[in-house]
Amino acid sequence: MSHQHPFPDPPPYRHPDEVARSFWDAPAPQHPEPREPRRPHGDLDALRSGYRRLRRVSTLTALGYFTLFLLLAAFAPGLMTSEISGGLNVGLLLGLGQLPVALAAIALYERIARHRLDPVAAAVREQHPWQSAAETRGPAARGGHPGGQEQWPWASGRAGGGRS
């Protein structure tokens, strides 16, 4: 077994005037006039906040109903097992009601987005002609090839690596 030092020797001491300055030691560059922060277009702010509000409302609606269902199932089992008619009880009825509530939240999201936010998005698109809808939604922008051929071999099933 060889004897090794657990810690390396410290680097030799240099006087602070001899040490080369690092980029973090340099003073920050001074701009002749303070710049105002770049603000996006007001319509973009309206779009962002509108879509954000819609996402929150629809998500909280669906999750709130589901949370209410879980809380009632956990803390009010007598209510959930109370029978309405035949084999139908309140818990089953509330459980089946989750799908219509989620679909209603989606439909409300689409309706409000279509009538209130999509016209604003179209106006913003018209104000920025350098980026057309074909450029943002084309297959080349999504990572594919414009000719429709996929770039990755596994997309067409020609990839190896597994037993056939």
Helix and strand sequence:
HHEEHHH
Mean pLDDT: 76
| N/C terminus separation | 52 Å
Specify the biggest β-sheet.
2 strands, antiparallel
- Widest β-sheet, arrangement of strands: 1-2
Strand segment count? 2
- Class by helix and strand content? mainly alpha
Q: Overall 3D geometry?
A: flat
Q: What is the count of DSSP helices, taking H or I runs of 4+ residues?
A: 5
Strand content: under 5%
Radius of gyration: 31 Å
Poorly predicted spans: none
Q: Helix content range of the residues, please?
A: 40-55%
Q: How would you describe the overall organization of this protein?
A:
This protein is mainly alpha-helical and 164 residues long. The chain has a domain of 85 residues. The protein has 5 helices and 2 strands; from the N terminus they run ααββααα. A two-stranded antiparallel sheet has the order 1-2. α1 runs antiparallel to α4. The longest helix has 34 residues. The chain is flat, with a radius of gyration of 31 Å. The two termini are 52 Å apart. The mean pLDDT is 76.
